[in-house]
Amino acid sequence: MCFVLALSLAVLPLPIPWLAHASTAVLAPKALAPTAFVPTGVPVESVPVPGDGDEAVAGAPSGYATQITPYPQPATAATLFFVMDATVTTADGGRIEAAGVMGSPAPLAVEESVLGRLFDTNVARFTPGLDTSAVKIHATPEVVATCGDVDGDGDLWEIHWEDIDALGVRRLPWHPAVTRTADLIFSTRHDWGWVDPFSVHDQPGALDGDLFTLRRDADGLGFHADSFLSERLLLEALGQLGDPLTDGVDVDAFTMNPPGDLYVSFREAEWVAGEWLQPGGIAGIPHHALLYDFDDNVREVEPGCAVVVLDADEVDALLVNSGLTRASGNAVTHLGNLQGLAVDPAGGTLPPSAASSVTALPANVMAVPHLLFVGEKIGPTVLTTRDGGRLATLDGHTLGANPMHGAALGLGADVDAPGHDLGGLLVMPRPEAQMCLDVTAGQIDLALDRRVEFVLGGATPHGVIALLVTLGEPGSGAQLVSHAAPAEWVHPDLYVASPAAVFAGRADGQGRLLLGIDVPAALMGPLWIIGQAFDPTRTALSPPAAIWAPGI
Question: Considering the entire predicted model, what is its pTM?
Answer without folding.
Answer: 0.82
